[in-house]
Amino acid sequence: MNKGAKTKELPAEHSLTAYLHSHLTAANAGERLFEQAVKSWRDTPQSAEVARLAAEVSEDKRTLEEVCEQLHASMPGYKKPLAWAAAQGATLGPINPGHSIDGAKGQLELESLISAVTGKLLLWKTLHVLSRDDNRIDQVRMEQLGNRAAAQIQSLEALLLDTCPARLAPSPKP
Length: 174
Known about the structure:
The chain has five helices and no strands. It has helices spanning 11-41, 47-70, 80-91, 103-130, 139-168. The N and C termini lie far apart (67 Å). The model is unreliable at 1-7 (pLDDT under 50).
């Protein structure tokens, strides 16, 4: 809510706004992490799946922005540089700067993507619970988004577990 607004924001409303702003910041960073993963997985049999997930994550970020607008909780201008900085930090590829799917770096990159999507799943679940008492939040849509996030986690876990032997299994002894 704008500082100059005549109405006061209730403490719970303020908490929800802060929570949504934190998730918007994380969504910006998550979107960049997925863009970096697309680079890591290019030229692999899994590249199409990673690209699909990255596109969904971008779409989910836009959906979160729409939800924030509906709740009159859009990111204020003074917080946007923080969200931008978080996204830029993720662009630097701190987990996997060489964009390699080999070894620990590739494994940790996938684990970080799973963690990011797990946070998003919990956001959608939280909003689903709040929708029971707040008709501004579309309960059915939150359930759909939660289901999609759960499916994204399953896809990422399958990718991680299917490919981890090539990254982490010790070489057979002669």
